[in-house]
Specification:
Length: about 325
Amino acid sequence: MKKIIGSAVLVILAVFLIRGFWDSQLTPVSSEKETKSFVITKGGSFSEVSKKLSDEGLIKSSFFFTFFAKQSGLSDKIQSGTFKLSPSMSAEEILKTITGNPVDDWVTLLEGWRIEEMAEKLNSEFRIQNSEFLKIAKEGYMFPDTYLFPKDYSAEQIAKIMMDNFEKKYTEALRTKIKSLGLSEDQGVILASIVEREARSYEARRMVASILLKRLKIGMGLNADATVQYATGYQPQEKSWWKRHLTKEDLRVESHYNTYIYSGLPPTPIANPSLSSLQAVADADLSIPYLYYYHDSKGNSYYAKTLDEHNQNIANNP
């Protein structure tokens, strides 16, 4: 009987010791109340977040924190964005914070979008008024990227960050290569915006950039469908700024952006190009023998030296 009582006491003591150790791992790291910004990226796993919290001295143990979160049913509830955390917060307080509302949030603005599309996205995510953003935004120079913006940022602050990002991405080396092709820096951006909408992969973009630049050099019309799509504007039935199927009437629309009826480059960019498209223009090769390109419904690319060859490519590869 004494052995049984003794064993029971040992078990109880062990439970209390384990419980005490468990609780100690969830208490604040220190009494330091100064907060720091903790960023959680989109798509990050909970284990990655937990390790980062531990590495930054905000929790005592990533293992115990992860176990506690799973036990609480919150391990799949973490939000992306920036959170204000301090070492004086308990594991429970930190978990509650990172599963709540961040002080800022991520937003992805896609390559090849017009500024109107960017305005719509910013309005839905940050309640930025479309008209306010459009007054400030400059087509072609709002670099498409994934951004982390404070929720109280103004349209002006957001636009400045995007334009500053463009200036960083459009390096002096790129500008120099583009100018060596006989284009101004702005013309390089205009051409890149067309290339962005006309091709998907870098190699296809480089070929399209080469062909369009070659057409420019010989005074041939660019005849780029993307410029007509830009000219026709928003399509209510498709709920899109880019008309899917252009008609013969569309190709005759009166607009200086219509490169089927006006020679040379459009007055301004037609979209916001990616770094890939800017690089494709910089790497354009005027020695290629082609003047025509065609992309089939599967995304395959075909190039031709003559209009007859081009029409044959279209007929053979719907």
